[in-house]
Amino acid sequence: MSTSATSVEIKKKFFNIPTAVEHLKSVGVESACEYMVRRLIVTGQIAHIRMGKSYYVSQAALDGWLSSHERKAK
């Protein structure tokens, strides 16, 4: 019996800070910079993972933060 047929594979995409900035710019946040992403992490506005001295944020966390801060047109 194959274990791959019964196991569920969860794929999350994690970005380091420079790659997170690139992702934000690719979705239209032209003013994104490393300082901005670091402030989001430090203030607890987005979830993150710390490994050693590096911080990683998930694509879902970035996209969720964007959608929660999106202003609706009147």
In short:
This protein has 74 residues and is of the alpha+beta class.
Structure description:
The chain has 74 residues and is of the alpha+beta class. Helices cover 45% and strands 15% of the residues. The chain has a 3-stranded antiparallel beta sheet. It starts with a helix and ends in a 6-residue tail after the last helix.
Topology, please?
Elements: H1 3-6, E1 14-16, H2 17-26, H3 34-42, E2 49-51, E3 54-58, H4 59-68
Antiparallel strand pairs: 1-3, 2-3
Task: State the main characteristics.
74 residues, alpha+beta, three-stranded antiparallel sheet
Distance between the termini: 57 Å
**Structure class:** alpha+beta
Order of helices and strands: HEHHEEH
On the 0 to 100 scale, the average pLDDT is: 87
* Overall number of structural domains: 1
